[in-house]
Specification:
Length: 691
């Protein structure tokens, strides 16, 4: 589990490094949208639904990341889609209200406000005047930009179009809804009998006669931008409360102007009169707002992680053969033992970047800065050359290095001639081999240079027939003859010359086999050779002059041979001449190997097709005969031509049902060593329906 959380932390940390300016802007926009959504729902019952949805999303997201459960992840994806579809449907009233609120705050809302004023003001004035004239107490609230959902929920839902008659009916003292406030949203009476918050501040002494209805109007004006109209039950006076201000003793003209300014907002002086004084926010409201802001930012980051992970997942890969270099080595120091030339690197990257990476996309190095002579363990540092790559580690993560002082030495080069036993007896080496250059310089770790005892250049003279001149590498050897590695001599190669001349009393010649007779009829001599193929003749120069590059064997009879024939045969040597093999040993005979093979040819025969497995059946074959190409030894082909019955062509009809026709390949039976090929590969066989 610890490794799982560690891997998750690494991926989140790597994902965070991939954030661009555009991603930050994207998250800020998402956070702003979420904050607006929270602000819309914070005072509605739907806030609990949204909280439940958010809790489910967090649980699903966390579970699918921490535990790789394919089935659960698949169901989670379906559930998230279902939630995204269900939430807008469930929050339809709140979303509609939000959109209406946006519409009321845009420049397009001017005509709408004018229409509201033309319908609402006359009905409000007429109802207010009638209620005032009859000393009927009333509390009418006009909703502003701040929603009054918390107030509406305290009353009885009406949702009826505003009219003076309806208002008068609601506030008639014999009805159940007259005690409380009426909330009007645009031109609709939303609810009646609503309870308003009372003001807690100290009123002026001149206003101490205000009752609960007036104190409720002032209390509501202190918490939002709603306009509240109050009709006094005792005096019939008309009053309004707005943004914490309270005006009383209004006539119809003043009330009309106040309502008109509330809707149209054209009278700037009146608006300034109604502007509320700045009020210091409470600690609770600040904490609540800050909490919604932080939650919006957190959810925006989570959504960005989900989307970026889905669109461009993170992959963990391992790449081998990344070249390793040693850096910061002092000029007078060198490594006594060569370090690993390559390392294996594990890394994280995005699947989009993965195809572009190779071993050349990484630089691996080990620094020996400030280290003196001795053995050390130094870390391997891997740096990616490409973007969007995070290195997890290297194998090996550390290497052992032995630092030694640099030593220079000059060593003579020895010439080593090899394969002297394979030099023909007709040739010999003259003098000592020469080496150019005669010395080499070695530079390397002191401990390694001190092991070098010899510098050797080797050349082979096997089967040489003239002076050998060759450029060969110089090998560095220790006292035991083992090669010392890790140091390259300068120069690395040397030229060796070995003088080889022919002996005056010896000569290399080839061996020619001589045969007598002819192979039996139908056979031919396909190959003829000797072992050994060459020999060295040794004797008087005058006798050797009679051999023009070869020596014959005594005749070998092949008249009865029908396969490979091996015969030990004497050489036809002149008096005073002897033959030597490759090792210089005298020989008088060689092995003659004669291979006699059958002559081969081709013939074409037209043969009838025989039916097998058709006892009691009536079967027809089309065509009734086929052409067969036969290849093989000529004697066998001649026997077949004399007796074609040696080759049979058959078709098996045992599985045919009455009335069935089928295309089949005939089977050809031939003698051994004969290859048959059908010219017409398939035939049609038909079984007649028996009556």
């Amino acid at each position: 589990m610890t490794e799982l959380f560690q891997a998750l932390g690494e991926e989140l940390q790597f994902r965070w490094t991939l954030i661009t300016t555009l991603d930050v802007i994207d998250m800020l926009f998402v956070a702003a949208m979420l904050y607006l959504l929270f602000s819309l729902l914070r005072r509605s019952q739907a806030v609990f639904l949204v909280r439940g949805v958010l809790v489910l999303l967090v649980i699903f997201f966390t579970t699918t990341i921490l535990v790789p459960l394919p089935t659960f992840t698949y169901l989670t994806a379906i559930a998230i889609v279902a939630i995204m579809i269900a939430v807008p449907i469930t929050l339809q009233p709140e979303l509609r209200q939000w959109l209406e609120k946006i519409g009321r705050t845009t420049f397009l809302s001017g005509s709408r406000k004018q229409e509201l004023a033309e319908h609402v003001i006359p009905n409000l004035l007429r109802a207010s005047e009638n209620l005032s004239a009859t000393y009927t107490g009333a509390l009418i609230v006009l909703e502003g930009s701040v929603p009054l959902d918390d107030v509406i929920t305290t009353g009885i839902t009406i949702n009826a179009r505003l009219s003076a008659e309806l208002l008068q009916t609601i506030f008639f003292d014999k009805t159940a809804l007259h005690d409380g406030a009426v909330v009007i949203r645009d031109d609709t009476i939303v609810a009646a009998g609503c309870i308003l918050p009372l003001t807690a501040r100290e009123l002026l002494s001149s206003n101490r006669r205000f009752g609960t209805r007036h104190r409720a109007a002032i209390g509501l004006s202190e918490t939002g931008d709603a306009l509240t109209i109050v009709v006094s039950e005792e005096t019939g006076a008309l009053s309004v409360a707005y943004n914490g201000k309270f005006r009383t003793g209004l006539d119809s003209v003043a009330l009309r102007q106040t309502i008109f300014n509330f809707y149209s907002q054209t009278d700037q002086a009146e608006r300034r009169q109604w502007l509320p004084a700045w009020r210091r926010p409470s600690v609770r409201s600040v904490a609540s707002t800050l909490g919604y802001i932080l939650a919006s930012i957190f959810l925006a980051v989570v959504l960005w992680l989900i989307v970026s992970t889905s669109s461009n997942p993170i992959a963990r890969e391992v790449i081998t053969d990344v070249p390793l270099t040693i850096t910061d080595m002092q000029d007078d120091r060198v490594l006594a033992v060569p370090p690993p030339s390559v390392v294996t690197v594990s890394y994280m990257t995005t699947e989009e970047q993965l195809p572009n990476l190779s071993a050349e996309s990484f630089s691996a190095s080990a620094s020996v800065s400030g280290l003196g002579q001795g053995k050390y363990r130094v870390p391997v540092v891997v740096v990616p050359d490409a973007e969007q790559v995070h290195v997890l580690g290297a194998t090996p993560s550390e290497i052992d290095v032995t630092i030694s002082a640099v030593m220079t030495a000059t060593i003579p080069v020895e010439a080593e001639v090899t394969d002297t036993s394979q030099l023909s007896a007709a040739y010999m080496v003259i003098g000592l081999p020469s080496v150019i250059p005669s010395t080499v310089t070695v530079v390397g770790p002191q401990t390694t240079v001190e092991r070098i005892a010899r510098a050797v250049a080797s050349v082979s003279i096997a089967n040489a027939a003239s002076t050998v001149r060759s450029i060969v590498p110089v090998r560095l050897l220790d006292q035991e003859g083992n090669q010392v590695t890790g140091i390259t001599p300068v120069p690395a190669n040397a030229e060796i010359t070995v003088s080889i001349v022919q002996r005056f009393d010896a000569k290399d010649v080839g061996v020619r086999a001589v045969t007598t007779g002819t192979p039996p009829e139908g056979y031919w001599l396909s190959s003829l050779r000797t072992e050994p193929a060459t020999v060295t003749l040794q004797g008087r120069p005058t006798a050797l002059a009679n051999y023009e590059g070869f020596i014959d064997t005594l005749p070998v009879d092949i008249s009865e041979a029908e396969s490979e024939l091996r015969v030990q045969t004497p050489l036809d040597l002149a008096e005073g001449v002897e033959a030597l093999d490759a090792s210089g040993a005298p020989i008088t005979t060689v092995t003659v190997i004669a291979t006699v093979s059958e002559r081969r040819g081709d013939i074409v025969l037209t043969l009838p097709i025989a039916i097998v497995g058709g006892d009691g059946m009536t079967v027809t074959v089309q065509p009734q005969s086929v052409d067969v190409l036969l290849s093989g030894p000529t004697p066998t082909l001649e026997r077949i031509q004399a007796d074609p019955s040696l080759v049979t062509v058959t078709v098996d009809v045992s599985t045919l049902v009455p009335g069935e026709s089928r295309e089949v390949t005939p089977r050809v039976v031939v003698p051994n060593d004969i290859i048959a090929q059908l010219v017409t590969r398939n035939v049609i066989v038909t079984r007649t329906v028996e009556p």
